[in-house]
Amino acid sequence: MLRQDSNDDTEDVSLFDADDEVSRRSKKSKIRHPVASFFHLFFRVSAIVVYLLCELLTSSFIACMVTIILLLSCDFWAVKNVTGRLMVGLRWWNQVDDDGRSHWVFEARKVSAQGNKASSEAESRIFWLGLITCPMIWVIFAFSALFSFKVKWLAVVVMGVVLQGANLYGYIRCKVGSRKNLTSMATNYLGKQFLRQTVAKDDQTAS
Amino acid sequence: MRDLKAVGKKFVHVMYPKKSSALLRDWDLWGPLVLCVSLALMLQGGSADSKDDGGPQFAEVFVIIWFGAVVITLNSKLLGGTISFFQSLCVLGYCVLPLTVAMLVCRLVLLAGSGTVSFVVRLVVVIAMFGWSTLASTAFLADSQPPNRKALVVYPIFLFYFVISWMILTFTPQ
Fold this sequence. Notes:
Number of helices of chain A: 6
Oligomer: heterodimer
Structural class of chain B: mainly alpha
Distance between the termini of chain A: 28 Å
Shape of chain A: globular
Largest interface: A-B, 19 and 28 residues
Structural class of chain A: mainly alpha
Largest sheet of chain A: 2 strands, antiparallel
Distance between the termini of chain B: 40 Å
Shape of chain B: globular
Number of helices of chain B: 8
Strand order of the largest sheet of chain A: 1-2
Radius of gyration of chain A: 21 Å
Radius of gyration of chain B: 17 Å
């Protein structure tokens, strides 16, 4: 039983899982929930596509609007209830106590002691990519609708911004909640990236 | 499908407004969205394929319902209500159900004819459903206010459902 040295992910190496290391490394880049990943992106992207192509597809404003609204609501439900939980292990909801006060709860799944991270990097990348870029696109649409005076589309665009922005905000708060400070998390991330780049450069110059 | 069952339970609660807190405790906005979309669709006049197909009216209904609900919620919060923002939106949205039923009945009656008799029938139906909506939402919302402020909270709700009822009553197909 040869124990292989893994240079990149040395955090959770266990002495007894020598054979599992290879499979674990390949699992990190494999997608565990293909259906969830597909639907995570499908609803968002198709809502944007329908919004852009509605003039060409059909001359009925109402059909476009209803389709976009349906897609946006399906996307909101799917991302909030299903894909966030499966792909990155985060969830958030609103809790109403018995005395009527409501507060928001943000949770992140703890990494188990085995080091068996249930979320793969590829999934995490897909999730955050979809989550961040789509609200920004809707904000761009909002400005374009405002400035080109296409006011009747403003209702749809505002809905898009609100629904997708809500999911974005909720998941960012879930992620940040464990570290309690958005700026410290950002500097952490940037610092890690910088370090990784310099280490990679060192490796290149050394070999 | 736990969400679907929750939505269905809330619809039943609106039709038989008992003093239970199920509507208030687990709020969700799916029911109001469905009701809003169906009401806006039913309030469309002409054919669905023309360029001038009442597009702005659809967005208008949407905006009136949601903006009106937000304003009422803000009003009740400013008056010192104990209900939260989304719970109030939830209740107001779900109580549009009787008016949606009234719209359906009106459209069916208008299929039969549009004379005085049909107008009287529609008037009666709309007034009955308007009363039902207002009573149902007041039953849930007025309790969160101190007793001398109840009228101040009920009045905007009355106005809100009155505007929707007016839109329904004055609807005439092309």
